[in-house]
Amino acid sequence: MVTPIRAILKSAARAWGLEPAAHLAGARAVWLAIVGPDLAAHSAPVGVRGKRLLVGVTHPAAGQEIRLRSGVIIQALARELGEGAIVEVHPVARRTLDRPRIRRSS
Predict the structure, then answer these.
(1) Is the pTM value of this prediction over 0.85?
(2) Would you call 78 helix, strand, or coil by DSSP?
(3) Backbone angles phi, psi at 69, to 5 degrees
(4) How much is the average pLDDT of 25-40?
(5) Which of 24, 37, 87, 105 holds its CA 20 to 30 A away from the CA of 12?
(6) Residue 91 backbone phi and psi in degrees, to 5
């Protein structure tokens, strides 16, 4: 029987206590696809505490939208990260959002 690499990595992350970081990285990777470009411009996953995803928002309206869409966001994250990985989404105010830096070739 062959064990999928994803299952091995999940097990290793759990054993080493890296599961929250793995969930955060997974949420960041799919955030744009889940919430769309307009909301993603004003929000981004910034942390995981237990099974709660903390989402930084730069505008109060973005925080309200995250709250309104929380059920859909949690379902989409369950498909990506596994059922029960994230059970709550909590917006937190931020002045700026950390964005991955894109290297441009010269």
Answers:
(1) no
(2) helix
(3) -95, 10
(4) 94
(5) 87
(6) -75, 140
pLDDT, one tens digit per residue, over 50-63 is 999 999 999 999 99
3-state helix, strand, coil in the chain (%, to 5): 50, 20, 30
Task: Please state, for a pLDDT cut of 70, what percent of the chain lies above it.
Answer: 79
DSSP sequence for 2-39 = PPPHHHHHHHHHHHTT-HHHHHHHHHHHHHHHHHHHHH
- Structural domains in the chain, sorted by start: 19-93 (3.30.300.180)
Residue type at position 58? T
Q: Is 28 exposed, middle or buried (0-12, 13-18, 19+ CB in 10 A)?
A: middle
C-beta of residue 85 within 8 angstroms of C-beta of residue 23: yes
Whether 24 contacts 77, CB under 8 Å: no
Q: What six digits make up the tokens of 102? A: 């894109």
